[in-house]
Amino acid sequence: MTLLIHDTTVITLRGGGVLTLRRHSLEIDGTRVASLAPAGAFEPRVRAGEFSRIIDGRRRVVIPGLVNTHHHLYQSITRCLPEVQNRTLFGWLSGLYPRWRRLDHRAVRAAAAVSLAELALNGCTTTSDHFYMFPAGSDVRMEAVLEAAELIGMRVHLCRGSMTLGTSAGGLPPDDCVERDADVISDCQRCLDRFHDPRPHARVRIDLAPCSPFNVSAGLFAEMLQLARTHGALLHTHLAETVDEDAFCAQRYGCRPLEVLAERGWLGPNVYLAHCVRLRGDEIATLAASGTAVAHCPTSNMRLASGAAPLRDMLRAGVRVGLAVDGSSSNDCGNLLAEARQALLVARLGQSPGNAATRENARDDASRGVLFPVERAMFLATAGGGAVLNRPELGRLDAGAAADFAVYRTDDVALAGGVVHDPLAALVLGAPPRADQVFVAGREIVRNGRLTSVEEESLAEQLNAAAAALT
Ligand SMILES: [Zn+2]
């Protein structure tokens, strides 16, 4: 099927920069972008009836599908939970584990479907999901998340997560929330054999993802490294998120969190790390030199008062960085455009000349009146995320790219005015609008601002029922 988004405004990446192209048309052939060119060039083919579908793009803005690099889709079942609303990470986790250990397959699927729907309705087309909660005696399997992804139509990196260090072994989670190393390894093998597609344009990939240094046995990191190499899979984990994690690693391993990974060979182009809030300058250089990527989660880091990751320093050093909303219990809003806005605002806060903590940084670009650019925020939310997941076909809209894109209406009140001056800035600086249409691999998963596969109200009702059962 050939589809033409005709005579529209397209925001895309080209030559490392973000471009806004007015009066252009985007041609889709099956699952890929066939061409992007000035609208006039398509007129003869439009008149000849060459396209099976034409969308009038004159009052629309088209962007590459947003790429979310870290999530815990199941956590929408415990959004806004009162007893952990005002806790930092370790207290927050300790309060949530007793709820999460009662999860079953159905509840996880219901929560994942809602989280995916929320992402899709706001223009996200690819997400990584870090699922690590396999309570003893539960029927939960990775298929719960996969079934939800297939329902919504999202492209996914499903991270087979794991926790193996329970309280009795010095870890943070209760013993009945953790698995044995051998069980984790065999299920990772099963998921890779059954679901992992290493080919370009894959709809489903399996990444291997021990949860964090404070709830996984050190040996499992090494086991995951070998398995990932064998299958051409990515490695993922949380790292350097809080002061408490620093203290845990110092006490248990006698070193910094990044050293725990480095000693186990966990640095390189096949590794991406969530958070990296508490990196020192030499550690940023280590990430850059090794090609290790970072999933930046500014809202979650503020919600839990973990801190602000050194985004500008990481970018300046050449670290690959993408954006992430993180789990729905530490960022109760799964909207990646909102995250782009948040990333920009936090980066600019760090450039405040009056901020003593950042006076060193403030001497450079901010002192010259140059603030963290809007284009950079959009890059991080699209091609930046694609780069973190080693997916060059994502986050751009030129020939050969995946046909993953979001379409916004210019008559949305959130965009009105700004969209005339600068459509890209209107999307990043304004209130994030709901997408009018979203396509993944050429398939329309959102139309007229609604999911095409299922009624979102029924998803919400199912999750509300499952959440009520956990109270
Ligand atoms: Zn996380």
Q: Provide the low-confidence segments as ranges.
A: none
Characterize the biggest β-sheet.
Answer: 9 strands, mixed
Helical fraction: 25-40%
Q: Which value, in Å, is the CA radius of gyration? A: 22 Å
Number of DSSP strands?
17
Strand residue content: 15-25%
Which CATH-level-2 architecture of the largest domain? Answer: Alpha-Beta Barrel
The overall pLDDT, averaged over residues, is 95
Distance between the ends: 48 Å
What's the helix count?
A: 17
Class by SSE composition: alpha/beta
CATH fold description of the largest domain: TIM Barrel
Which ions, cofactors or small ligands are bound in this entry? zinc ion
CATH class of the largest domain: Alpha Beta
Shape: globular
Count of all domains:
2
CATH superfamily of the largest domain: Metal-dependent hydrolases
What does this structure look like?
This protein has two domains: 2-64 and 396-449, Urease, subunit C, domain 1 (Roll), CATH 2.30.40.10; 66-388, TIM Barrel. Helices cover 36% and strands 21% of the residues. The protein contains 17 helices and 17 strands. Strand 11 (271-275), helix 9 and strand 12 (293-296) form a beta-alpha-beta unit. The termini are far apart. The site of zinc ion has 7 residues, from loops.
